[in-house]
Amino acid sequence: MPENRTSDSFIAKLNKAGVVTYVHTNNDISDMKKYEKMGIYGFYTDDLSEMVLGNEGAKKWYLMGLR
How far apart are CA 6 and CA 53, in angstroms? Predict the structure, then answer.
């Protein structure tokens, strides 16, 4: 779903219904952390540079979407 459609209440309802949610297009690690706390399952990004993937925090968020 686009970032502008996310809210705590909407994501909670989707999770309660068993819906797996992904947010696109997200290139900001701090936003990914916020969305994870909301209950988002994963993220789509267009920023897969070596610098980002070499960052252990970024790697965790990238790999989280592959579970």
Answer: 25
Residue with tokens 């797996």, as numbered in its chain: 20
Please report the pLDDT score of residue 36 as a whole number: 86
Residue 41's alpha-carbon distances to 18, 51, 60, in angstroms, are 11, 24, 13
User: Distance from CA of residue 52 to its chain's centroid?
Assistant: 15
> Mean pLDDT of successive 10-residue segments in the chain (67 residues)?
91 95 82 87 74 58 52
What backbone torsions phi and psi does residue 22 show, to the nearest 5 degrees? Answer: -125, 145
Token pair of 34, please? 């916020």
